[in-house]
Amino acid sequence: MTEKTEKSPVIPTPEGRVSFPSVFTKSEYNGVEKYRITLLIPKDADISRLKADAARAAKGKWGDNLPANLRWPFGDGDTVEWEGHANHWFIRMTTDRKPVVVDKAHQELLNPEDIYGGCYARVGVKAFAYDKMGNKGVGFGFVSVMKTGEGEPFTGAVDTEKIFGPPDTGADDKDNYKEENLDDLMGV
User: What angle do CA 157, 142, 20 make, to 5 degrees?
Assistant: First the structure.
Protein backbone atom coordinates (compact mmCIF):
# COMPACT_ATOMS: atom_id res chain seq x y z
CA MET A 1 0.00 0.00 0.00
CA THR A 2 1.44 3.36 -0.96
CA GLU A 3 1.41 6.29 1.42
CA LYS A 4 -1.00 9.00 0.39
CA THR A 5 0.55 12.47 0.25
CA GLU A 6 -1.54 15.27 1.71
CA LYS A 7 -2.68 17.50 -1.12
CA SER A 8 -1.83 21.16 -0.72
CA PRO A 9 -4.83 23.49 -0.58
CA VAL A 10 -5.08 26.54 -2.80
CA ILE A 11 -4.75 29.62 -0.60
CA PRO A 12 -5.19 33.31 -1.40
CA THR A 13 -2.30 35.73 -1.18
CA PRO A 14 -2.69 39.09 0.49
CA GLU A 15 -3.38 41.92 -1.92
CA GLY A 16 -0.32 43.06 -3.84
CA ARG A 17 0.76 44.78 -7.01
CA VAL A 18 1.13 42.75 -10.15
CA SER A 19 4.47 42.73 -11.93
CA PHE A 20 5.52 40.91 -15.12
CA PRO A 21 2.08 39.38 -15.81
CA SER A 22 1.51 36.76 -18.46
CA VAL A 23 -1.84 35.30 -17.40
CA PHE A 24 -3.75 35.26 -20.69
CA THR A 25 -1.01 33.71 -22.84
CA LYS A 26 2.10 31.75 -21.98
CA SER A 27 5.48 33.43 -22.03
CA GLU A 28 8.89 31.87 -22.53
CA TYR A 29 11.65 32.00 -19.93
CA ASN A 30 14.80 29.88 -20.19
CA GLY A 31 13.19 27.88 -22.97
CA VAL A 32 10.07 27.01 -20.94
CA GLU A 33 6.63 28.38 -21.82
CA LYS A 34 4.25 28.93 -18.89
CA TYR A 35 1.70 31.34 -17.56
CA ARG A 36 3.50 33.67 -15.13
CA ILE A 37 2.86 36.40 -12.62
CA THR A 38 4.89 38.15 -9.96
CA LEU A 39 3.11 39.65 -6.98
CA LEU A 40 4.60 42.44 -4.86
CA ILE A 41 3.32 42.16 -1.32
CA PRO A 42 4.06 44.97 1.15
CA LYS A 43 6.52 43.91 3.83
CA ASP A 44 4.06 44.86 6.57
CA ALA A 45 1.39 42.44 5.20
CA ASP A 46 0.76 39.14 6.97
CA ILE A 47 2.35 36.42 4.82
CA SER A 48 2.39 33.80 7.60
CA ARG A 49 -0.07 31.57 5.73
CA LEU A 50 2.16 31.60 2.64
CA LYS A 51 5.22 30.84 4.76
CA ALA A 52 3.42 27.94 6.44
CA ASP A 53 2.38 26.50 3.06
CA ALA A 54 5.96 26.81 1.77
CA ALA A 55 7.31 25.08 4.90
CA ARG A 56 4.71 22.31 4.56
CA ALA A 57 5.80 21.68 0.96
CA ALA A 58 9.49 21.57 1.95
CA LYS A 59 8.88 19.20 4.88
CA GLY A 60 6.65 17.04 2.69
CA LYS A 61 9.57 16.48 0.31
CA TRP A 62 12.59 16.43 2.64
CA GLY A 63 11.18 15.95 6.14
CA ASP A 64 13.17 17.63 8.88
CA ASN A 65 16.42 17.37 6.87
CA LEU A 66 16.02 20.39 4.63
CA PRO A 67 18.77 20.74 2.03
CA ALA A 68 21.45 23.35 2.52
CA ASN A 69 20.85 26.43 0.34
CA LEU A 70 17.18 25.60 -0.10
CA ARG A 71 15.56 28.23 -2.32
CA TRP A 72 12.48 29.85 -0.82
CA PRO A 73 9.86 31.63 -2.96
CA PHE A 74 10.01 35.00 -1.17
CA GLY A 75 12.25 37.57 -2.86
CA ASP A 76 13.27 40.78 -1.11
CA GLY A 77 12.25 43.73 -3.26
CA ASP A 78 14.89 45.90 -1.58
CA THR A 79 17.62 43.82 -3.26
CA VAL A 80 16.49 44.44 -6.86
CA GLU A 81 16.25 47.60 -8.92
CA TRP A 82 12.87 46.96 -10.50
CA GLU A 83 10.24 49.67 -10.37
CA GLY A 84 7.86 49.33 -7.41
CA HIS A 85 9.67 46.44 -5.70
CA ALA A 86 11.21 48.40 -2.78
CA ASN A 87 9.62 47.66 0.63
CA HIS A 88 7.87 44.58 -0.79
CA TRP A 89 8.30 40.83 -0.87
CA PHE A 90 7.97 39.50 -4.38
CA ILE A 91 6.74 36.06 -5.28
CA ARG A 92 7.10 34.67 -8.79
CA MET A 93 4.44 32.13 -9.71
CA THR A 94 3.97 29.90 -12.73
CA THR A 95 1.51 27.36 -14.06
CA ASP A 96 1.10 25.17 -17.12
CA ARG A 97 -2.69 25.57 -17.07
CA LYS A 98 -4.49 28.77 -18.02
CA PRO A 99 -5.50 30.47 -14.78
CA VAL A 100 -8.96 31.80 -14.07
CA VAL A 101 -8.84 35.62 -14.05
CA VAL A 102 -11.69 37.53 -12.37
CA ASP A 103 -12.58 40.91 -10.93
CA LYS A 104 -13.74 41.56 -7.34
CA ALA A 105 -17.29 40.56 -8.30
CA HIS A 106 -15.93 37.19 -9.55
CA GLN A 107 -16.73 38.14 -13.15
CA GLU A 108 -14.26 36.62 -15.59
CA LEU A 109 -11.85 39.07 -17.20
CA LEU A 110 -11.02 38.31 -20.83
CA ASN A 111 -9.13 41.41 -21.96
CA PRO A 112 -5.34 41.02 -21.54
CA GLU A 113 -5.10 44.75 -20.82
CA ASP A 114 -7.08 44.25 -17.59
CA ILE A 115 -4.11 42.64 -15.83
CA TYR A 116 -1.04 44.83 -16.17
CA GLY A 117 2.12 45.55 -14.23
CA GLY A 118 1.04 47.96 -11.50
CA CYS A 119 -2.58 46.87 -10.95
CA TYR A 120 -3.61 45.29 -7.64
CA ALA A 121 -4.62 41.65 -7.23
CA ARG A 122 -4.78 38.59 -5.05
CA VAL A 123 -3.63 35.25 -6.40
CA GLY A 124 -4.80 31.71 -5.60
CA VAL A 125 -1.58 29.76 -4.98
CA LYS A 126 -0.32 26.33 -4.04
CA ALA A 127 3.21 25.65 -2.75
CA PHE A 128 5.33 22.88 -4.24
CA ALA A 129 8.84 21.58 -3.62
CA TYR A 130 11.26 20.94 -6.46
CA ASP A 131 14.60 19.23 -7.00
CA LYS A 132 15.64 19.96 -10.56
CA MET A 133 19.07 20.19 -12.20
CA GLY A 134 20.82 20.62 -8.85
CA ASN A 135 18.40 23.30 -7.63
CA LYS A 136 16.29 22.50 -4.60
CA GLY A 137 13.58 24.75 -3.37
CA VAL A 138 9.97 25.69 -2.91
CA GLY A 139 7.87 27.62 -5.37
CA PHE A 140 4.26 28.64 -5.80
CA GLY A 141 2.03 27.60 -8.64
CA PHE A 142 -1.13 29.58 -9.24
CA VAL A 143 -4.62 28.73 -10.40
CA SER A 144 -6.43 32.06 -10.28
CA VAL A 145 -6.01 35.83 -10.20
CA MET A 146 -8.51 38.30 -8.74
CA LYS A 147 -7.95 41.88 -9.81
CA THR A 148 -8.72 44.07 -6.80
CA GLY A 149 -7.90 47.52 -8.12
CA GLU A 150 -6.22 49.80 -10.59
CA GLY A 151 -2.72 51.14 -10.01
CA GLU A 152 -0.10 53.30 -11.64
CA PRO A 153 1.26 51.10 -14.46
CA PHE A 154 4.84 49.89 -14.35
CA THR A 155 5.57 50.96 -17.88
CA GLY A 156 9.25 51.56 -17.91
CA ALA A 157 8.17 54.69 -19.73
CA VAL A 158 10.44 57.66 -19.80
CA ASP A 159 9.38 61.19 -18.88
CA THR A 160 10.13 62.83 -22.22
CA GLU A 161 9.96 66.31 -20.72
CA LYS A 162 12.94 65.41 -18.52
CA ILE A 163 14.90 64.45 -21.63
CA PHE A 164 13.65 66.87 -24.28
CA GLY A 165 12.29 69.73 -22.21
CA PRO A 166 8.78 71.16 -22.31
CA PRO A 167 6.56 70.69 -25.36
CA ASP A 168 7.60 72.64 -28.46
CA THR A 169 6.16 76.11 -28.36
CA GLY A 170 7.65 77.11 -31.67
CA ALA A 171 10.55 78.98 -30.05
CA ASP A 172 14.02 78.21 -31.36
CA ASP A 173 16.07 76.69 -28.53
CA LYS A 174 19.19 75.66 -30.45
CA ASP A 175 21.25 78.33 -28.70
CA ASN A 176 20.47 76.76 -25.31
CA TYR A 177 23.03 74.05 -25.99
CA LYS A 178 25.85 76.18 -27.37
CA GLU A 179 29.10 75.77 -25.47
CA GLU A 180 32.35 77.50 -26.29
CA ASN A 181 35.02 75.43 -28.01
CA LEU A 182 32.93 72.21 -28.22
CA ASP A 183 33.03 72.35 -32.01
CA ASP A 184 36.83 72.62 -31.88
CA LEU A 185 37.11 69.93 -29.23
CA MET A 186 35.06 67.43 -31.21
CA GLY A 187 36.26 68.50 -34.64
CA VAL A 188 32.70 69.15 -35.72
Answer: 10
